[in-house]
UniProtKB/TrEMBL annotation:
Its EC number is 2.5.1.61. Residues 3-202 form the Porphobilinogen deaminase N-terminal domain. Belongs to the HMBS family. This is Probable porphobilinogen deaminase. It comes from Pyrodictium abyssi. Signal peptide: none annotated. Binds 1 dipyrromethane group covalently.
Length: 302
């Protein structure tokens, strides 16, 4: 059997796709794979803000179109780039084991915490979540947009365009980049829903492929994915809402911690909810409704 795999062509996307395919190979060594590389508008216009090139779900839509049009059988995504409403007809069919969900602060020289940065330091990030949550603890920092793939971002830091940048730890781990950094605790910066989880999507109708993907699924990662994605769907808000959430399992209990802030970081509310790992979507919904109520009383629009 041969499976055609839609993926973006960036170094990180290709590394992620190999990680996901290796999980399938472990269970089904007989399967062959063929990559279908999709060049998305997000890859072509790396210098432009997302809002100018199509916004929400930019990467997801074009890669998944290859599956919808029959040019590929499955698609591999970073779950945090997949909007809450995925292209119709597609199902999240497999998750490999999760990498780190957390964000890191990378500085030139020795690693520094957010509190060690000098007053007025320039921090690179285009993420509303990263900017608002860090402004909350360091309102004096100057945030400047930063896009492009991980190598480009690190190069811009080394060139001195920024004093610090924020990246996902998962991306650095998957690229095998051996750099020093400070892991930002989630009470300072809650991760994006799905950060560190890869998602393999296929059509609902692919009864030939779905069982293979189910065999290769890491159940804990899938449970966390379901909780965080249900949270995202019910929390509402656009991709410019400073919203974070991550789920974890401890002693058989599923937890989710979620937070939302005002864009300038002046206000923030948090919730932590626990529930049954067999019902992750319920937990995500509970957390979203609780967070919405708390945000409304604090005057944060969601
Ligand atoms: N926004 C791009 C993106 N999408 C997923 C990751 C990292 C890997 C992951 O979260 O699974 C990154 C890079 C980053 O934010 O530093």
């Amino acid at each position: 059997m041969k499976i055609r795999v839609a993926t973006r062509g960036s170094k990180l996307s290709l590394a992620q796709t190999q990680l996901a395919l290796n999980e399938i190979r472990k269970r089904h060594p007989e399967v062959e794979f063929e990559l279908v590389i999709v060049k998305t508008r997000g890859d072509i216009h790396q210098d432009k803000p997302f809002t100018m090139i199509g916004g929400k779900g930019l990467f997801e839509k074009e890669v998944n179109l290859a599956v919808l049009e029959g040019r590929a059988d499955i698609a591999v995504h970073s779950l945090k780039d997949v909007p809450s409403e995925v292209s119709p007809g597609l199902v999240l069919a497999m998750t490999p084991p999760r990498a780190s969900p957390f964000d890191v602060l990378v500085t030139r020289g020795s690693p520094k915490t957010i509190w060690d940065l000098p007053a007025g330091a320039v921090v690179g990030s285009s993420s509303a979540r990263r900017v608002a949550m860090l402004k909350r603890v360091r309102s004096d920092l100057v945030f400047k947009p930063l896009r492009g793939n991980v190598d480009t971002r690190l190069r811009k830091l080394q060139q001195g365009m920024y004093d610090a940048i924020i990246l996902a730890e998962a991306g650095l781990q998957r690229l095998g980049l051996d750099i020093e950094y400070w892991r930002i605790p989630p009470d300072v910066l809650p991760p994006a829903p799905g950060q560190g989880i890869l998602g393999v999507y296929t059509l609902y109708s692919r009864g030939d492929i779905l069982p293979l993907l189910e065999d290769a699924t890491d159940e804990e990662a899938m449970t966390m994915a379901r909780a965080e994605r249900a949270f995202l769907a019910y929390a509402g808000g656009g991709c410019h809402t400073p919203l974070g959430a991550y789920a974890w399992i401890e002693k058989g209990i599923l937890y989710i911690h979620a937070a939302v802030a005002s864009p300038d970081g002046s206000k923030r509310v948090d919730v932590t909810v626990e529930g049954d790992p067999e019902r992750p979507a319920q937990l995500g919904i509970d957390a979203a409704l609780e967070l919405r109520a708390k945000a409304a009383s604090a005057g944060i629009t969601l």
